[in-house]
Structures are given as structure tokens and as C-alpha cells.
User: Which sequence fits this backbone?
């Protein structure tokens, strides 16, 4: 018998195309034999090639469904991540990484404030499983940005900010956000 991989309480037989043979773990009952059909309970934890969660795309109504209300292929998730639903200049995939609403023309807020130890740099929203890399330069005419460090917000265990402890009169900052 082929190897089995447990995915969200279900088992998928390896060596078959995705969706071709999906069984319930407890009863080994066949649930689906259509290779073109994607079952959402299985793909929730899957990600596009750019790292966007299938579940997030589906929950936000960004994935086109057929007349039966089903998603025809995993390629539809890839296409959904590349679209810009709210026409704000950021693809749905970029909105996922930024933590902004893909259906609203909102934007990421950068916050700078003087703290006890230095300049505190953070973003809103500050979401889990992202890495925020902080860069700085003292002159806008300079083409080089200096990497200062990074911060994360993993399930609330970190403070979600970066503190620049350098005592500078003038500094400019940028933040690069990526998936962990």
C-alpha cells in the first residue's frame, strides 16, 4: 500500500495527484475521486508559491468558485494571490504579508516614537509569523540603506517593535516585511 500523509485529520495517499484519492482517517472511506476538485478542509494549511495561505484566500472570498461552489484547481489559489481585489496597488498576496484587508483600501501604518532606550519602530498591524526587517540611513541622497535588525510577533511572545539605540539627530527608516 502507498504511504499515507496525515493532513488536518484526513489522510492523502502519496503518489496520486492532489485531490485524486482522499480518505477519512478513521474509516478509510473514500471522500473524493475527482482530480480537478480541491477540498477546502485539506488545503487550508497549504500555501501558494509566494507563501499565501489557501485558507486566508478562501476565507476572504478571493478565490473564484465554479457553479457548485467549489474551487476547480490549486492554480486558482495562485491566481487569487496575484489579483488586486481592492485596486489599491497591492496584490492579495502582498496584503496577506502586510496584514492589511484585501477588500479595503487600507494601508500599513509605520510608527516611530521616542522611547526610554531610543527610537521605537513598529507597524500596525503587527501580525504573527512575519519578520519585520528595519533599515536606516541618515541622508536621503544616499543610495545605501543600513540594516539595523529585525523583530517578530510570534503568538504575542515578543513586543513587536525594534528599538534604534543609536543617538542620531536625523534618521530615515524603512521596514521590509516577509513571512517567517
Assistant:
Amino acid at each position: 500500500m502507498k504511504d499515507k500523509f496525515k493532513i488536518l485529520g484526513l489522510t492523502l495517499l502519496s503518489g496520486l495527484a492532489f485531490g485524486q484519492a482522499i480518505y477519512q482517517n478513521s474509516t478509510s472511506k473514500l471522500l473524493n475521486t475527482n482530480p480537478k476538485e480541491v477540498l477546502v478542509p485539506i488545503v487550508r494549511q497549504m500555501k501558494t508559491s509566494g507563501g499565501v495561505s489557501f485558507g486566508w484566500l478562501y476565507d476572504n472570498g478571493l478565490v473564484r468558485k465554479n457553479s457548485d461552489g467549489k474551487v476547480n484547481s490549486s492554480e486558482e489559489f495562485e491566481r487569487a494571490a496575484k489579483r488586486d481585489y481592492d485596486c489599491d496597488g497591492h496584490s492579495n498576496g502582498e496584503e496577506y504579508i502586510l496584514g492589511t484587508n484585501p477588500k479595503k483600501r487600507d494601508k500599513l501604518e509605520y510608527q516611530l516614537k521616542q522611547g526610554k532606550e531610543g527610537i521605537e519602530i513598529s507597524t500596525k498591524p503587527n501580525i504573527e509569523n512575519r519578520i519585520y526587517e528595519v533599515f536606516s540611513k541618515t541622508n536621503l541622497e544616499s543610495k545605501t540603506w543600513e540594516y539595523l535588525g529585525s523583530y517578530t510577533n510570534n503568538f504575542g511572545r515578543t513586543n513587536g517593535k525594534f528599538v534604534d539605540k543609536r543617538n542620531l539627530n536625523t534618521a530615515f527608516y524603512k521596514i521590509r516585511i516577509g513571512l517567517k
Observations:
- Residues 1-42 have pLDDT under 50 and may be disordered.
- The chain has four helices and ten strands.
